[in-house]
Amino acid sequence: DDGSARLLRSRNGHSAPPTRVRYYNQHSLLSAGQDRSFRIFSTIQDQQSREMSQGHLEKKAKALSSKAEDLKLNPVIDFASAPLREKDWCNVLTCHQDDNRAYTWRYKNAVLGKHVLRPPALDYAAAHLAAMGEDGPKIDPFKKVPGRLPGQVVDYEHKIRKKGALLEHEVTKAKAVCMSGCGNFGIVGYACGRIDKFNMQSGAHRGSFWAQAPAGHASAIHGLDMSALNEELISASFDGSIKIWGFDDRTLLHTFEVGAPVNQIVLNRDNSLLAATADDLKLRLYDLSSRRLVRVFEGHTNRITDVCLSPDGRWALSASADRSVRIYDIPTSRLIDWVRFDRAVTGVAMSPSGDFVCTSHAASVGIYLWANRTHFANVFLGYAAPSEATDLRLPTSSGPQEGAAASEDPSAPGIELYPPLSEQLTPDLITFSTVPRPRWQTLANLEDIKKRNRPLEAPTAPAEAPFFLPTLPGLEPVFAPEAVRPGLGEDLQTKSAKKAKTAPQTSDALPGWGDGGDDDGEDEVGGAGAAHTKDQAGSSRLIHLSDLRPSTKFVKQLRRAGIAGTREFALCVDTLAEMSASAVDLEIRSLSLANEGEELGLFVDLLASQLPTGRHFELLQAYMSSFLSIHEDSAMAYGHLAQKLAELRDVERGAWMHFKGKFQKVLCLIGALGNMQ
């Protein structure tokens, strides 16, 4: 109103390096930084990135004559989220530096929630009995134990505090948080070793996980996570132990002794695989189902700052202060990639679909996204672990720096291209192709995809307009309508028709189609009275429409394969493997029905000859499914094609039985090895 400029749109980010970053969903990131801010970043549209509001700080700062940054909460040290309850109540939980409270946030509105989770006073005796069982531990009261009087079972009493001093639950600090997959419960771990359970909807306290040492934790909690079905709670402590608790009855179920202070843990809820990092610079993997240590990875030379597991549970990524990120393949227990940056890595996370990896670095306010090349292309990871790290420079807003493309070198360790699979290793094996999965998976739903992507309205040609627009006479200029101007509204089709009428008629004619003066129609191909005409040499001048149809490269190879044999059919499959899904669908639909379905029969021969070889198994299944859905009725109309389809059915059944036998053999071997003690 006063004529001054107003703020229309702004973009901002962290003013201090981020310390923790995690994916909230496929296209959103949650990050916490040293600038006391808690932010949402969108990976597809920067306008959707925003900071989680902590209240009317500007108004409070103006009333207190202070800065808004000084009124913010302390820096976030850990956070957790549950996207399932995004529309119902607060679904994000954070704990902050030097604070015993945990704060709830509402992601939908990007605001701080109304519930603040504070630890209540703890009944240590009841908590210990709940953790050890209803009847408590079985201890001989008459056995002499150092530090215990005869008849004394457990000393629950803590040191007497001074008058007016704060209680233990009032001075302890929150160190770690996690949320259940359903979003109903939030878990907070404290520096004193206790763990509290809260209801996220009401903020009410629902119980504590605690036991007297050595049964319980004797030091700060540095990691928390929960199983997929809310059956077990996993906690890691600085005392070098990882404990598994029953979530409902809060009983202690199992303890892993790590042997070194644990920094953090990450659980893959799909396969119950737990990753833990410790101060001995080792990454350990535990199987919660069998309660065993299954993998130990070494290699970092400085503190491991963050760790994450891929969504499919196959890879483990660890970030370290030695400026490197290591990627381990869990099934083969080996290092498959090793990347070194020019700054220490403080955080690493992988998207839910596994297509991108984000990192945060010391002395850098940005969050960097890296594409997972194995998700978009076929990348051969090699057979041996890389001996040297691949150096990567962090990108800048001014563009790639000199030497930043070093990682694109195909000779770099870990990113070699797949070796060409020319021949089957042994006839008994079944080999999948190296064709990306979307190329053959979309064949079955290609019609639905085209229908979905079809425009609502057909494209129309723009109306023609003269260079000078005529106007009607008058005081105000008014353009003359097109209807008044004769000849302007004629479309291109009408003009082309007029040109065709005025064009001179030529007397040249194609051989076999008759000359210009022949009107009896006897030499017209495709008509009802079409007849063979003979030239002076006595040869037929009749041209079939099937001979005029242009043949593609695939059709030519298919015709040659009918004479050459199986080896040429393999070239036909290689040609289809190089095409996109739409091109393959077009080739299959373009197979001619002429000569009693000759091309259809050749395609059936292709499938019947290549299925027993075991090569390109999933491609042939996709091609066969698409062929039958398009040409099934046409092929069954011919007797010889129906017989070929019956033979193909027997070949397909034999190929699947062979595949099933190999698969069952592998499953039995895995089951036998899994049950070995």
Main sheet characteristics: 5 strands, mixed
DSSP strand (E) fraction? 15-25%
| Count of individual helical segments | 14
State Rg: 36 Å
Order of strands across the widest beta sheet? 21-22-23-24-29
How helical, in percent, are the residues? 10-25%
Mean pLDDT: 79
Number of strands: 32
End-to-end Cα distance = 80 Å
- Tell me, briefly, the overall form: globular
| Class by alpha and beta content | alpha+beta
Low-pLDDT segments, ≥5 res: 152-158, 402-418, 482-497, 503-538
Structural commentary:
- Helix content is 23%, strand content 25%.
- α9 runs antiparallel to α10 and α11 packs parallel to α13.
- The protein is globular.
- With 677 residues, the protein is of the alpha+beta class.
- The protein contains 14 helices and 32 strands.
Summarize the model shown.
The protein has 14 helices and 32 strands. With 677 residues, it is an alpha+beta fold.
Detail the topology: elements first, then pairings.
Blueprint: E1 18-25, E2 28-33, E3 38-42, E4 50-51, H1 57-64, E5 76-81, E6 92-96, E7 102-106, E8 111-117, H2 124-132, H3 168-171, E9 174-179, E10 185-190, E11 195-199, E12 205-209, E13 221-226, E14 232-237, E15 241-246, E16 252-257, E17 262-268, E18 273-278, E19 283-287, E20 292-297, E21 304-309, E22 315-320, E23 324-329, E24 334-340, E25 345-350, E26 356-361, E27 367-371, H4 373-376, E28 379-380, E29 390-391, E30 416-417, H5 437-441, H6 446-453, E31 471-472, E32 478-479, H7 492-502, H8 545-548, H9 553-564, H10 566-577, H11 581-589, H12 594-610, H13 617-636, H14 639-674
Parallel strand pairs: 24-29
Antiparallel strand pairs: 1-2, 2-3, 3-4, 5-6, 6-7, 7-8, 9-10, 10-11, 11-12, 13-14, 14-15, 15-16, 17-18, 18-19, 19-20, 21-22, 22-23, 23-24, 25-26, 26-27, 28-30, 31-32
Helix pairs in contact: 9-10, 9-12, 11-13, 12-13, 12-14
